[in-house]
Design a protein that fits this description.
Glutathione S-transferase Yfyf (Class Pi), Chain A, domain 2, six-stranded antiparallel β-sheet, Rossmann fold, 11 helices, 43% helix, globular
Length: 371
Amino acid sequence: MKINNCYLLNFRNFNNLNIRFFDKINVITGGNAQGKTNILEGVYFSAKGKSFKSVKESDLIKIDKRESFIRTDVESDGLEEKIELKLSKDSSKVIRINENKVDTMQELRTFFDIVTFIPEDIKIIKESKSYRRDFIDEVIIGLLPGYNSLLIKYNNILNQRNYILKYKKQGRYFKEQIRASTKQLAQEGAKIMRMRSKYIGIIEEYAIEIHKRLTSEKEIISLDYNGKSKDYDYDIIKNSQVLYSQLEENLDRDLNLGFTSVGPHRDDISIFVNDMDSRIFLSQGQQRTLTLSLKLSQIKLYDDFKEVSPVILLDDVFSELDRERTNYLLNSIKDYQSIITSTDESFLQDYTDEYRVFELMDNELKVKKFR
């Protein structure tokens, strides 16, 4: 899969921008506040229907306009497809693929794969467990689109149970309602636990080898799901029974809290380097290298398990990498289409394969260099 063209109209700071991408490495250079990241955001939005930032959709529309439009032409096996998204400050977004309206976000998000390398990705290592859950879930959805439906179903049941806990605890049928929702939650939660456990183990296998190369064999990664690793129980029935018991044991606590305190929505993935907790004992540089290993594992996993290669977006990541890691990353992505933002192209000094460099200035993007 590759992106041939991306057209942005009234998106962020751009009035009208049309970009023809090279099928390998594309570098977008320019000064600060020119809108380099906004281009990546537009491409990502066309693939996922959302921003990779925590912003309202109305914030993506140029400040003095009411509507924004994105068109992205993608190609797979010689067949070109057209993705169009219309954003409005007055109504919901409209998504079309080949001029046919898309009714669900899942139809868009499974159309082609995007893997991002952005500064915020370090939150996977440093911050709350929700970032690690989101990363694992994103990887699985990319491989098994139906997994997203499972997450949606689980969250709907979770919301229902939380409503019963908060508002129905004095109701006549409370015991029957909470028992039924608890049973459903345990059944669906067990499926999520099994899928996460399986793919955490697979990601770990890829990440171990990649991280060894990035650290000259000095660091070994391990990933634990809820305190367990490869020996985690894959048995859905047993997982369901265990989760049901945990929910029952915590019922009094949940009644006091007004929400469900255990389950896959509260799970954590612990990431260790040389048996040390990466959140506590690693330096900022080590954490960034670890994030890079996880993201490269995601790319490799998609490439090995799917017929279509992902498009890679990298936002100002090379400024924080030394030459050895820079060269390793460039050589790791050279066979994929990638779009990279940077203040300049100096990180390409040792790179010998094909690339194209653009310069963004005053809302205009021009080809500066290519090889």
